[in-house]
From TrEMBL:
Protein name per the record: Probable nitronate monooxygenase
PANTHER family tied to this protein: 2-NITROPROPANE DIOXYGENASE, 2-NITROPROPANE DIOXYGENASE-LIKE PROTEIN
UniProt keyword list: Flavoprotein, FMN, Oxidoreductase
Gene3D superfamilies: Aldolase class I (3.20.20.70)
Molecular functions per Gene Ontology: nitronate monooxygenase activity
Length: 316
């Protein structure tokens, strides 16, 4: 399947593994890229040398393109933006903000820049500043979220910009992929489904929590201070929400989640840690290799998009 995104990024399948904090390290990113999609290393809040090391480790595992997600709120974002150029990374996605200040440097180095956006206004602005594509991320996603749903956001951004749009948030199988393409997307980005990949280093408890999740198991915390995060309900989200409702300060709430994603991903504390995952967790029932995940999604999507399957509906 060829789209402007497969051409732009030099990949076989229009599928991107989201750059997830703590989860998206070299092993997972390289496995996804080896399977013909695009793997991303999640820069998150990691120091520049940690990100450099992950880039080098990924290069040892695959010759295919691997990108980096730069979390713009990170205190190390400036240094990480240089590491990307120094290590010859050619694809960058950016999260949690506006990457304008790095745009010229990256474009001069031939880096394809793909900001993650949650509104039409930011998508248009990114296009004006030279972005090569955007990820339109709906609030079904795991992690930091906006307010629009994928279903409403993707077609509005597709209509508003000329550059290709990648849909993210709530996509977990070939049906989600096909739906995103019907909305005008030219690729999809998935996070939650790849957290449970066999190559993912995520703790087994975290994977099991996703595999056992029901449709209504996620909760959003942090709306009160403007940084909402979607994760699976547990003791931590319960306590957080209680404090939020009681009017706790940003600092008090921050204390509750300090290091909590790491505690869940690395140590397997799924009770008091932050189990970031999207609403699609309820659909994900098995741990598979990245290759199996991608091949299964592509074959299902191809079947749906190429056939008259949808015409069999009762509207005929
Ligand atoms: C555990 C986890 C950590 C994430 N961390 C980041 C991050 O550091 N930067 C970012 O841009 N997106 C992050 N995301 C969002 C993903 O990259 C992706 O866009 C999102 O998961 C897509 O929605 P889905 O979970 O419904 O597939 C994270 C998602 C998860 C599940």
């Amino acid at each position: 399947m060829k789209t402007r995104i497969t051409e732009l990024l030099g990949i076989k399948y229009p599928v991107i593994q989201g750059g997830m904090a703590w989860v998206a390290e070299a092993n997972l990113a390289a496995a996804v890229s080896e399977a013909g999609a695009l793997g991303l290393i999640g820069g998150a809040n990691a120091p520049a040398e940690v990100v450099r090391n992950e880039i080098r480790r990924a290069k040892l595992r695959t010759d295919k393109p691997v990108g980096v997600n730069v979390m713009l709120l990170s205190p190390h974002a400036d240094e990480v933006s240089d590491v990307i150029v120094e290590e010859g990374v050619k694809i960058v996605t950016t999260g949690a903000g506006n990457p304008e200040k790095y745009m010229n440097k990256w474009k001069r180095a031939g880096v394809k820049v793909i900001p993650v956006v949650a509104s039409v206004a930011l998508a248009k602005r990114m296009e004006r500043y030279g972005a090569d594509a955007v990820v339109a991320e709906g609030m079904e996603s795991g992690g930091h979220i906006g307010e629009q749903t994928t279903m409403t956001l993707v077609p509005q951004i597709v209509d508003a910009v000329e550059i290709p749009v990648i849909a993210a948030g709530g996509i977990g199988d070939g049906r989600g992929f096909a739906a995103a393409f019907m909305l005008g997307a030219e690729a999809v980005q998935m996070g939650t489904r790849f957290v449970v990949a066999k190559e993912s280093i995520c703790h087994e408890n975290y994977k099991q929590r996703i595999l056992n999740a029901k449709d209504i198991d996620s909760a959003v915390t942090g709306r009160s201070h403007g940084h909402p995060i979607r994760s699976l309900r547990n003791q931590m989200t319960k306590e957080y929400r209680k404090k939020e409702e009681a009017g706790a300060s940003f600092e008090e709430l921050e204390l509750l989640t300090l290091g909590s994603l790491r505690n869940a991903v690395v140590d397997g504390d799924v009770k008091n840690g932050t189990v970031m995952a999207g609403q699609i967790a309820g659909l994900i029932k098995k741990e598979q290799t990245c290759n199996e995940i991608i091949e299964e999604i592509m074959s299902e999507a191809n079947r749906l998009l190429k056939t008259d399957y949808w015409k069999g509906s009762s509207y005929e």
